[in-house]
Amino acid sequence: MRIVAITHYPGALRCFIDTAAHLDRTVPGWGSLTLFDSAQPLGDADALAGAVSSADAVIVDLMRSDPAWQDALAPILDGYPGHLLPFGMQFAGQTRLGQFRLAPGTMPPMMLGAPPEPPRGVDDSQARRDAMTFSRLARAYRTMRGGDALFVLGTLLRDYGDQPGLDVPEPSPQTPGVHLADPATRARYASAEDYLAAHPGPKGRPVVALLYNGVSYPTDPEPVAARLAEALSGDAWVLPVAIETDAASAVDRILELCATPGLEPDLVVTLMSFRFGAGPTGGDADHGVAALNRLGVPYLSPILLTRTTAEEWLHHSNGLGPSEVLVSVMLPEFDGAINQIPIAAMTPPRHDARHRVDTAELQVIDEQLNRLVGRVRGLLRLRGLANADKRVCLIGYDYPAGEGNLLAASQLDVAESIAAILAELHRTGYRTQPVTAARLRADLMAGQVNSPAYLTEVQPLTYPHRQAQADLGDQQAWDEVTRAWPADGPRPMVDSDGDYLIPHVEYGNVLVGVQPGRAPEVDDALAHDNTVPPHPQYLAYYTWLQHVWRADVIVHVGTHGTLEFLKSKENAVSVHDFPDLMVGDIPHVYLYYAGNPAEALLARRRSHATLVSYQPPVMTSGGLHDELEELAEALAAYRRSHAMTSQSSEDQLADLRQRAERAHLPTDPDQLEGELERLRAQLIPLGLHVFGSHWDAGEVAYMVAGVIGNGVGDLAPGYELMAAADGLEAERIHRLSEAEIARYDEAAKRLVEVALTSQAPAADLAGDETSRAVIVRARELALRFAANQEWEFLHRALSGRHVEARLGGDAIRNPEVLPSGASLYQFDPRQVPSALAARRGAEMAAQIVEVYRDGHGGAWPSCVGLVLWGLETTRTHGETYAQVMSLIGVRRAPSRRPGLPGWEVIPREELPGPRVDVVVTISGFFRDLFGTLVEELDDMFAAVAALDEPDEINPIAARTRQLRQHLLDGGMTEPETRELSHVRVFGPPPELYATGLTDVIDTGNWSSTTDLAEHFTQGAQHLYSRHRHGEKVPGLYRGHLADVQLVAQCRSSNEHHITDLDHYFEFLGGMSAGVAAARGEAVPTLVTDTTGRRVHTATAADAARAGLYAQLFNPAWVEAMLAHGHQGVGEIAERTTNLLGLAATTGEMADWMFDAVCDRFLGDPEMLRRLREANPHATAAIAGRLLEANRRDLWQACEERIDTLENVQFDTDAGLEGAGETGA
After folding, report:
1. Is the domain of 138 the same as that of 228?
2. Least buried of 319, 348, 749, 858, by fewest C-beta within 10 Å?
3. Nearest partner of 798 among 432, 394, 408, judged by Cα
């Protein structure tokens, strides 16, 4: 009998080899066994086809295999007449064994964890016997212990081959369920009593529950579980639990075992991938989450590297591949898992020459196992300490280094938050003292600042460099740091003896520290450079916290520091990666902005952080102010006059146009009306959040109105609901003017006000169903927004308890991200794009095409450039991703099935026009968080490029053919050109998350826009596809940029306009500059805003104008920021730098924008006084940045303004010197 086995399962390969050798010895002439390892890339497809076609029986399991295997096997197996045993999901519908056939679309019961049983609906007795045999074979295959391989091959030979008298052993005992176990002996125990009879109880020691897969499939984890249990036993009593059933069925039994009196766990460690309560075949994840919350103890999820050796993993910067990240990292994060530390990997492959396959097994990585055990020890210690005995380290930031940036974080007033935390810790029994934010800042400014620009009253504590080296105890790390930062080069924060400065202040058992900067001020480009080790003082600082100050827990305060950006893998970090080394075994808590799950996950994954989220500042309508309010009144007056007398209206129209010109807004009344209404309605953040603080009733009402106005869930935007309640049909609602929208939006706001101020039932307040639904939803939202769980979850984290996880994102788009406090996870990439994102993405695509056609005589663009961010994808659930799909002519599949793409190519006849090629520039966060989507995008481009369509309909295919020929002419091989010619996704190198252009602008290390274009192009040229990760192909990205006819990006954040975040000028501006340099001419730069009631596309200049009017020029925003003093002025300074960056990269920022910044903040004596009093360092920075803009010809400033700016700089420096803060 000729048997072929195609499997990724190392245990099966190993056992089949041994069993074939046994059969050769005991049953001469039994037949042949041909093996294919589908965990490896597909090699000789002809050999595969030949082996399968001539086989009598084929075993196939492609669960973790490259899709090429399925593609190659599909046509072969389609007409295959022999026995076909699919032991995975692929080809299950073609199962054939004797008379048994599995109905297409069904899953064998044993694949779901159920025991073999007679199949229902099979009447033929032989077919029923064959079905039972198939079920037993599949169970034995998945167990693969003892004589299981002989049972599989022997049964095929005896019952379906020519060895009817063969003696076949019974398979390993099948004991589906959840069992207390001894992983060292593989023993299973029927009850807790039986287990305790063989293993004496904890006797007061902490208990650690260890969950692991008790079945050998797909790799055998039990030997690893045995080693881990032994290692943990030095610090705890271990309760091993072997799971041999489906995930959903296991949860209640695990809870039952963990509720055994005396065995209640202090901590749970799981070696299972996927969700707690849900696996690859489904389950009940919500039940699992509820169970973990009920247990209330930390849930640790170390990683088993089942697809790589330890040596390969150590030397790969990307850690895990996309599918491994999904099942081993991302899905456990949904359950609040922490400490995702690799502890085992595959042994180096052992080659079997006869069968031409390699075999391997899991093996513990000792140093990684020790790190996990150390972190368990740290959590158990934290759980056992009284609050009064805990030593808590609170870390704030100061980068770029200097006084002006001390204690800054996204959306958080760090000084006030630390003061609030100190007060709360004092209240709950920690040995510390309350201090005000002003005193805290003064204590730090007195000498505890990174690389201060001015001499200070005191010097920070020094840490002798020899002691630091000895305390670290890691010579490899020390050598790496000192090689990168030699003693004769720049080394920040060292004294004249080479000892390290440790800026901090202590309030009892609580230390407030200042995280080291990444680099000297002259090179802050290193702040997020993941390729360069930290400087010696950075390493020394965290070594001091661990070994000298002996912190019991480290808390990083705010989004975000630089710890997680130190040299490291993208995920699955090792003990040699610097974020891991810095925190060591100390429990790590990170207070992170709930609106930024993308970067939060980096902190969790790289630095083993327990995340505690904080809410955004309150969001409210920006409204119209100053000249905008006057302009709106003039427009209203013109409208009234136009309806009465033509002569009067003409005069008013002329006045209106003059006013509009002075405000740099459209002069056409209709266009002006639309722009003013968009400015009036856009939401802005007011101030900064203070950790633990609640919104008051008025602020809750603002948030509810914002959500209702934009629409939420199944509730359309407020104006649509009010218009429908008014009797308008959908088509008429779609054609409403901005003014009409505003009127209906006001009606929705009034309804919200009624809902929140009245106690009456909704039925008594509104006569129509739509209005009642708004009232009900408004009240639900108010309850959600009034809650705040930040203190609750911070206390849990500081006590070594479980912190549950929730979806992070924009609270206006998705209110379910609140209340804050819980840990964070991202939107499931398997659901990208959502149905709503797909609709909005199509609208975004249509709008940028329309803008291009309006400016090019109706011609369609053939190629556009889009920026695709991870945070935007998480926030919008894939709007830009869907925009790419729409442009190239791809859509979501009607239904998603395992093993099949979730998309399909739109037929040519259904397209609204030609396809549009897209050059996609991704951020590093998109690469790391959505690796499966990178592969999917590559598949889409390949599919569209392969279509046989005219060039004018399919420029993707046309450009791919041209590029392939160009690459061939350049000496590249045919297989390489076939793969590279359709690649359209580019981004930063694997070690980095951006291009570094922000740091170039910050430091001023550039001469011309050409320099910036070159820096961006060099930084973003790394290609990403299904088979390539961050490679550089010289000229490939630049060549694509030369074909781009417009550049666009989505604005998805209510918190940030393009003037409020530096990464907009880095990516949008950088790509615009890169395209202009590659083409030799500028192209339109567009911003599509999806935060409002309607998708709206504008030029970068108009988008910047909207951002300036919304925040920097808005008195309400400015006053809210100045209420936060030092940090508020820093926010203003940041936006000034962003404006310069946009001007430098896009060339579209007008002089009036800089004029207004100068006049409003530095030309107004009272405002200047307030800025200087709050933060003189940042005030000087604003003046310096404006002078730089003038010097670089980005702003043509008048002499009077230049004099003002120079005087501000001089007077500010003089003031600081006079205050004793400066010396040399």
Report:
1. no
2. 858
3. 394
